[in-house]
Amino acid sequence: MPADKDGVAALTLPPSDATRDGWVSPHVAALAATNVVAERDLLSDTGVDVVGYGRNTVYRAKDAAAAVRLRDGLLAEPKDTTQPITRIPVAGVPSASCDTYAMFAGGETIYYCTVAVGRYVAEYGSAQRVDVRQVIDASYEILRKAGS
Questions:
Q1: Are the beta carbons of 47 and 60 closer than 8 angstroms?
Q2: DSSP state string for the chain
């Protein structure tokens, strides 16, 4: 198999763990979701044909409209939390949105962001807000410059 089908993994940031570098089919990507069936349906409905892995994840949807639906669907997926989820915009990064939540009362805050550019969607999550902001900013610039 090619290490980077259609160059999608090259649109991610370099991974900190070399075992998370490359690409998978949408069916394989769905297996990592909290709700495998919902993720599989979302990826199918938006025409995702390849998912690139690096430090972040990049999905290639069938077109720009499908990428926006994918971005919104990824954010809407249930999170493993009993705490409220707060949606926060990302200043200076058009078409990006983030959720912030705690896994449990008094627990660590999680930041999860997605950005749609053309037919691509990048996602990233971390407990460090600055880290997430830097990754989503860089993801947007990579996708924008790639002419997505």
A1: no
A2: --SSGGG-GGGSPPPSSGGG-EEE-HHHHHTTSSSHHHHHHHHHHTT--EEEESSSEEEE-SSHHHHHHHHHHHHHSPPS-SS--EEEE-TT-TTEEEEEEESSTT--EEEEEEEEETTEEEEEEES-HHHHHHHHHHHHHHHHHTT-
For 33-57, write each residue's pLDDT tens digit: 878 888 899 999 999 999 999 999 9
pTM: 0.89
Asked if residues 74 and 113 have their Cβ atoms less than 8 Å apart, the reply is: no
Nearest-CA neighbor of 120 among 56, 45, 68? Answer: 68
| Phi, psi for 123 (deg, rounded to 5) | -135, 155
| Radius of gyration of the chain measured on its C-alpha atoms | 14
CA–CA separation, 13 and 80 (whole Å): 26
d(CA 23, CA 73): 21
CB atoms within 10 A of CB 140: 21
Mean pLDDT of the chain: 86
